[in-house]
Each structure stands twice: as C-alpha cells, then as structure tokens.
Amino acid sequence: MSELLIIILNYRTPRLTIECLRSLSDKLGEVPGTRVVVVENGSADGSGREIADAIGDNGWAAWADLLLLPVNRGFAGGNNAALDLLRSDDRFKAAPWVLLLNSDTIVHPRVLRYCYDLMRHDLRIGVMSCMLRNADGSPQNVTRDFPTPLKQAVCAFGLPWTHPQRFAWADVYDVPPKLLTTKRDVDWLGGAFMFVRRKALDDIGGRMDESFFFYGEDIEFCHRFRRHGWRVHYDPAVSITHIGGSSSDPTRVPDKLKNVYTWRARYLVQKKCYGRPAAWLVRACDVVALGLRKVKMLATGKRDSERYRNVSDALSILVRPLRT
Q1: Which class is 4-146+175-247 in CATH?
Q2: What are phi and psi of 232, to 5 degrees?
Q3: Tens place of pLDDT for every residue, the chain, 324 residues?
C-alpha cells in the first residue's frame, strides 16, 4: 500500500522529468511507502518511450509507474488521470497523502519528510507548499492573494502601481520579499509543488477542475480547499528547485495560444470562484482599460512600439470568444 502518491505530469519535457525522478530516487525513504506515477500527457514526441527506458535502465520500476495518455488533457486533466487511481487502483486506495509535482523540479533532501511530518501534526492543513527556488537559488513567488473581482478590476487599470498609496491592497501579483521567507497561511499556492491531504482532497471532490486546460486551475483548487474549511499553507523551511515555464515555452505552446489560455483562465477563475457576473465585470474592465491604453499610445505617437502591438493583440483576443 502506498503512503504517499507523487504525481508528475510530463508534456514534452522528458529529460526534465527524468532528472526530477533522479532527484527523488534517493529520497523515497523519507516517507515510507512512497510511489510515483508519471503521467505522459499526450506529448506525441517520444516522451513516453524515453521515460520508460529511463525507469527501466535506472531500476526505478519498483517505485515509479508510467501512465500514457493518448491526448493532451491539460494540467488539470493530466493530474486527474493519476488522481483517479486513488479510487481505482488497490495500490493507492489507502494513500493518505498526495504530492502534485511539476516535471521541471529538483527535490532536495528533507522536503518530503518535513511536509509529511508537518501535515501529520497540523490536522487543519489541507494543502501546503515549501519554498520554490530558481536555478540561481533565489526564491520564487508561489503564494498570492485571491484575485477577487474588485482587486482584478483595480489591477486592470494599473492603479496598484500608479497610485500605490491608495491601491496597494489590490495588488494580487507582487509579494513583499520578506513574505517569501515567512511561514504562513495563504490564499493560494502555485501548482508546481502541492502536498495534499487525502481527506481534504476527498472533501473537495477528489479532482481538479478540467474546465481549466492551462493556468488558473491552482487558484480554483485552493479556493475549494479554503471554502471547505481547510487551510492552505506555505512553509519555506525546506525548498525545491523549480525551473519554471518548461511546458509552456514557445516550442511547446505557441505564444498566441498561450495568451488565449491566460485570458481564458483569468475569467474562468472569476466564474468558478465568484460567479458569472464577476467574470463579465473583470472582462469589461480589461477591455476598457486596454482600449484607453491603445488610444493614449495612438495620441502620443507610439503606434510602432512593441507595447502598442501587445495591447492591440490582447484587445483582438478579448473582443472574440475565448476558444482554444
């Protein structure tokens, strides 16, 4: 029986996935009964064979399984394919802990044990993250406030940055550096490392929301934990390395499609967490704010600037249905 199920989602990052597995290979004893499932998310690039060969060649088959999906189901759908094993596979049915782990991560010593011990003793934490570091060792911002409709509307017009004395409260993107080294409960955590209590996961439905394909699913996921009374926790006492953006770089996801995913997720978060009117309000504010910026740049002779092109591209996306 598995005590901890680690889920790694691969989409066209086989070498990173293999290095992630390598970083785990000597740390599984930190939590007895740890197993890993690598979900190959329909990459169609030979990833499955490369990862399977690495598992066999390195003797990892005793603790690592490969789940091949025929199509790319996105971040939520790919993780759900493994989360469903908690109900369908006897090896995982009794597992009390789950770790959602990005393929572009390197797990450092003590991380698994620390999170395991903390959550066993603090019974109200539903999901937690450790510190995530860039390749140069600097900390990443993986915790943010919920993007409530009011805060998003204020941010659309740039007020937290143009008038910080009055509107800094609405900034849902920037976190003071001190907070990156402060243990605390937060609104939501980035999805690169999520150590999840199985009981809490079952309380919120047992799966991620597949309405999200890419981006935003981690916000909605944490919102459900909070709504059901579970704490979302950040503890920087231990850390992993997170390269970041590997599955969404231009060689894997074209920039235009990535922009559509980003805007679509922005409004889907509003709809799922705060209701359909919130989504329409935020989208209307975005269109007005972008329109005002475009007019201002035209009036000041900045039509040939990259910023003008970016604003125009965003407007062209938002005035059409956000289909992917």
Answers
A1: alpha beta
A2: -110, 120
A3: 689 999 999 999 999 999 999 999 999 999 999 999 999 999 999 999 999 999 999 999 999 999 999 999 999 999 999 999 999 999 999 999 999 999 999 999 999 999 999 999 999 999 999 999 999 999 999 999 999 999 999 999 999 999 999 999 999 998 899 999 999 999 999 999 999 999 999 999 999 999 999 899 999 999 999 999 999 999 999 999 999 865 555 555 567 788 889 999 999 999 999 999 999 999 999 999 999 999 999 998 888 888 989 999 999 889 888 765
pTM: 0.93
Both structure tokens of 308: 């003008």
CA dihedral 276, 277, 280, 281 (to 10 degrees): -140
Write out the two tokens for 93: 């049915």
Decide if 8 contacts 20 (C-beta within 8 A). Answer: yes
SS3 label, residue 6? strand
Strands (E), 63-124: 64-69, 97-102, 105-107
Distance, CA of 77 to CA of 40 (rounded, Å): 12
d(CA 115, CA 112): 5
Q: With 0-12 CB in 10 A as exposed, 13-18 as middle and 19+ as buried, what is 306? A: exposed
